[in-house]
Design a protein that fits this description.
48% of the residues lie in helices and 6% in strands. The protein is mainly α.
């Protein structure tokens, strides 16, 4: 996973303008809170929960890699 876009002049300029406009640091990344519905889903889950679950599994896999 690369975060190279966050290092570009465009990114810095856009968020610099946004920060100046609202007078404080603008949110850089927001996970939507969209409810997930499916016959198989029995709990109240959201896209935020799903994204965090996927990220957790990804990090677990990375930790299993030999150094």
């Amino acid at each position: 996973k690369a975060h190279s876009f966050e290092q570009t002049r465009l990114y810095a300029r856009v968020f610099g303008l946004a920060d100046k406009l609202i007078g404080k640091p603008a949110p850089r990344a927001v996970l939507p809170q969209i409810p997930l519905h499916s016959p198989k889903i029995t709990r109240n889950l959201t896209t935020d929960w799903f994204a965090n679950r996927v990220e957790g599994r990804y990090q677990t896999c990375l930790q299993r890699l030999p150094a």
